[in-house]
Design the sequence.
């Protein structure tokens, strides 16, 4: 009888050890799935953060380029393109057009990253066009 109890006790221990192994395996599997799902969300968040940083940087470069263009005399503002001196990976294109009125011009700056065809940022501003003074007034006594 004692032998039967010992054998029964040992078989219960083995069964318990087997169920513990199964529980640990299931827990490890669930944890692996949770980590894989979390890593996908983390990757998406990092990509979104990088894209936001790129757009913000392009917007600041756009503002800078438009400020440089408008700091010139209105007659000197012209369509041109170039590369930013601070970062050669970024390039810009400046387009000058007539504005809604004859005394107003419109300057649009597009900022591109590397060799992308689509601009990362574009910004348009209106600027006053200085009228030329005419000295040929008839009958102007001096």
Sequence:
């Amino acid at each position: 009888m004692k032998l039967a109890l010992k054998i029964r006790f040992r078989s219960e221990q083995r069964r318990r050890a087997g169920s513990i192994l199964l529980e640990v395996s299931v827990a490890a599997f669930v944890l692996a799935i949770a980590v894989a799902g979390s890593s996908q969300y983390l990757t998406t968040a990092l990509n979104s953060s990088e894209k936001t940083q790129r757009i913000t940087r392009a917007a600041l470069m756009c503002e800078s380029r438009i400020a440089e263009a408008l700091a010139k005399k209105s007659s000197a503002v012209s369509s041109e393109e170039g590369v930013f001196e601070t970062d050669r990976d970024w390039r810009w294109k400046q387009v000058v057009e007539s504005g809604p009125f004859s005394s107003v011009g419109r300057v649009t700056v597009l900022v591109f990253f590397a060799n992308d065809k689509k601009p990362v940022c574009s910004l348009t501003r209106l600027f006053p066009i200085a009228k030329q003074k005419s000295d040929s007034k008839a009958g102007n006594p001096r």
